[in-house]
Amino acid sequence: QVQLVETGGGLVQAGGSLGLSCAASGSFFGIVNMDSMGWYRQAPGKQREVVALIISGGFKTYANSVKGRFTISRDNAKNTVYLQMNSLKPEDTAVYYCAATYRGTNYWGQGTQVTVSS
Description:
Radius of gyration: 14 Å
Largest sheet: 7 strands, mixed
Order of helices and strands: EEEEEEEEEEE
Distance between the termini: 40 Å
Strand content: over 45%
Mean pLDDT: 96
Low-confidence stretches: none
């Protein structure tokens, strides 16, 4: 079992920055052993979409809409993944979910709201 707890998020004006953190706990041998770990988001009336992931081996992948603005990173010692969001746009408004896949099982955090005002 893996538990994911997100912190961060909130309200920011367009062009501003926010940071999200996701701390993992439970029965696993470090986030470095995750199949993948990262962030998804879901805006009202839209499907959940991937934002940024760290794949096994450390490879990072981003949605085209956030490339150059968002940065995903991790601290293996703290079992925590971060998402730094810069140059935020109103269309980035969504509930952001931390997600992890470990030994083929998907785990989700509770979600945190990010609202970008124009």
